[in-house]
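Schema walk-through. Below, the input block comes first and the output block second. Nothing else is stored per chain. Lengths vary across the set, and this one has 315 residues.
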Amino acid sequence: MIKATFAPAFALVGALALMSAGGAQAASKTSSCNRACLEGTMTRYLDAMVKHDPAAAPLAKTVRFTENGIDLAPGEGFWKTIDGLGTYRQNVLDVRAHQSGAYLVAMEGGKPVLFAVRLRVENRQITEIETQVSHSNAEAGGWEIEKLVKADPRMTYVPKGKERMSRAELVRIAMMYPQGLRAAKSFVADPDLPMIEAAYRRENGMTTGGPDSTRGAGTKNMKTQNLFIAGGRPNFQARVVAVDEDLGIVWTRVSWRRPAAVVNGVTGPARRFVAFEAFKVYDGKLHAAEAFLRFEPLENTGGWGVGAPDPLPAD
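--- output ---
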């Protein structure tokens, strides 16, 4: 069983300064995989999954693989049931930290599923595989998966010139979002999160915040949107998964305890609500938040640490 530990999201930014400069030097020595290499490695991994053949992927002998927070051997789990890939793919490529990430729609038994993948690539071999799979609407807590046809151009936009920000600033602004969720108020204060007026939030294909939100008038402005939920967000956890400095995307894993719910007169167990969430940040402001969400057993903290800092020290 995975041991649960807890850390506040806003502690992450402060932890950046504690990372040693030696780690960055070691990273630069082993890094030989640029953006094209990272994206290509992800494609090779996905193709190997569709073939149900781990030997077709450039896996290191010591590779570690988790699916929904559970350790498995490559070839197990979703490897056995995946049929193919849809057209939707949002990359998150972190060259300095050797991380290749992707949000995807995959196929299983002729039906679409939500699939998120993080790979760590060392010397052009995959040493870590972290995946999240939601096989059904119920597992995901609701979805509009049919709307996930291609990556949103607002997410794939490449910031230019003065719009670009340092890694540390990208993380600082992005982590205000989970801080606001934990405070369960709004982004007007605690914290005052800088964002554009047209900023949007998308969950499992559903637009739940911003001008196009389908959740009512009160959700049309992400800045003032009420973040309250019954029972709050106890046992809150957050970690930085990867930072795509070229696209201005900070990829995180955020989770909290959801109280027991009564469905059709039956009380179910308390569960952990997990969000792999990508924040689009540039020109000093948040532009978008896109998440793949699902429910997990309460004790499942993901298997890769919670409250962990960004893999590299601040700039």
